Amino acid sequence: MKRWQDMSWTQEMRIQIDANLMMTPALGEKEGISEEEIEKLQPVIQTIHGQIEEEKAQERLPFLTIPFDGSLTPKIKKFIQGTKPWVENFVVLGIGGSALGAKALNKALSHPHYNLLSKTMRKGFPRHFVADNVDPDGFKALLDLLEVRKTLFNVISKSGGTAETMSQFLIIRDLIKKKLGNRKEKDHLVITTDPVQGVLRKIAEEEQFKSFEIPSLLGGRFSVLSAVGLLPAAICGIDIEELQAGAREMAGRCLKPSIWENPAYWCACLSFLSYKQMKKNIRVIMPYGDALRGMGEWFCQLWAESLGKRYTVKGREVWNGQTPVTALGATDQHSQLQLYMEGPGDKVFSFIRIRNYAGLIPLPKLYPKVEELAYLGGHSLNRLIQTEMEATRLALARNGRPSLTITLPKINPFTIGQLILLWELETLVCGRLMGINPLNQPGVEEGKILTYALLGRKGFEKEGKDGESLSKDNKKYIQ
Ligand code: PA5
């Protein structure tokens, strides 16, 4: 039996959401949210819940249903089996939602210095890289490190047309051909893309590359639990079945329409009220653990791209969105906290607490007579970081700064799976409360289109002309 099949273990590993420091009893009438305000949202949540249930049944919300798709992990595992003997480096070529999930999972669930470990310490799993930029220096530096003969590249693009990813694809394809010849090309590239649309799917089919599908209605930032995130995770030894089980656990906790009995609806309502009513334009995610920095970055994209919308679904111009920021505890207490404590009261905080870190590092009692050090001796780094988090959230609350605390009993695939699903569903529901479409990204598309136009792609001539009119510089403004 796997541990995630054991009810008492899953119970122990449930993540917990504590919003006490957002509510009126702790923060007072001016800064806190009242139960009444939450209750007022129940009827609209009821409607959103009905829509979600309907869309789920029609398979129009794949991020909620993929954790229940038992067919994906065996396919991934079978593919990985074939790569085991020779792959020493695994490289994701992708950007945005096609890269951040893979990065976050690796950071959260692999050794903090995974790529520096020996092959034995990596248990034979390959080194892991995510090339999510087209900075020529960065890309060249990565290529300098890799022996192509021992490298597997995973091109990930939902649309199959993103200029950054497709450029990387062109470079890598050419490189493989030059280094290894036509015959080997197929072994070194695996494609993850839409099942039908896009040029990458066409290439995969016509040229018979191995490929995985991203469900048609699954947008990049919601795709981490599809092959987009699961293949890069599994190839480095992360237990993707446990990850999916964690997501299912959270999905199971989010079935009821009542805000008081549904963690994602609870979080969505608090976020919505903090933005609309309390005018908190900035949301700061503060995980207290290096491993969760990538999850913070992944969340930032999810929140920014989903909620940052000019128009409501009804076409009203609103310029909506709450700016997400990641700050790492305790490190960023010494870079950003001063602003958070005494700067504008336009922020709401989400602390991520780790109840049990993987290791315990005691602090030696070396200077019992030196006051400045004696109080530390006998404690542990674990106690120190947890105390710092507690002190920070209480100090913020004392200044009327609201915060939510999510506690992970431990960092493992089961708790990370829960967190992913919680944040995805919270984002969807918050977007719907705001009246915008959280699942599209017209602003990103606009930038993509202008890039095509400026690079002379056929069919985009008009957009190129529009862009040129803005780039006429006045020398007076340039020093
Ligand atoms: O979340 C999104 O939809 C975007 O961030 C995309 O993931 C990103 O633009 C990359 O797109 P694609 O996967 O089509 O290459």
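^ 5-phosphoarabinonic acid complex. The pocket of 5-phosphoarabinonic acid is lined by residues 95-98, 157-159, 162, 165, 219-221, 305, 441, 444 (CB under 6 Å). The mean pLDDT is 95.
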